[in-house]
Amino acid sequence: MMPGDPEVRAQQSTDRGSRHQLEETFRDNPLDGRFELLIDGALAAHLTYTVKGEQVVLTDGVEHPGFRDQGMDVTLMRHIVLDAHRRRLSLVPQCPMAFSFLADHPGCPDLDPGPGH
Q: Per DSSP, what are the bridge partners of residue 49?
């Protein structure tokens, strides 16, 4: 078959149409005190927090089964940092998920390592 053949074009079209684009949703759930990352409507990761003045203290991050080791922690933290920047809040990491992100992104201005760091 040649690249211009109708069969080849039909297969390429089918291949493009069958690729599923994951729908990623970030939300702040203040009633439960957590930021959430949903993938195709399923809760992939969340991070609990408390608010102290203009600081958001990040206390416990969780990647849910089926989503572990897929970078959901980094995706969630990126959303949290952007949200904090937009709201002009600083973040204080107090959990491994947030500390790890801070270590990998030392120039991020919206993360406050807190006392002793």
A: 58
Tokens of 81: 């940092």
35, 47 in Cβ contact below 8 A? yes
Q: What is the pLDDT of residues 17-67, one digit of tens each?
A: 445 678 999 999 999 999 999 999 999 999 999 999 999 999 999 999 999
Neighbour tally for 70: CB within 10 Å: 13
Enumerate residues 6+ apart whose C-beta is below 8 A from 57.
49, 50, 51, 92, 94
Selection from 74, 96, 62, 92 nearest residue 24 by Cα: 74
CA distance 105 to 113: 12
93 closest CA partner among 53, 56, 62, 46: 56
Q: For the residues of 20-50, what is the DSSP string, one character each?
A: PPPPEEEEEETTTTEEEEEETTEEEEEEEEE
Look up the pTM and report it.
0.74
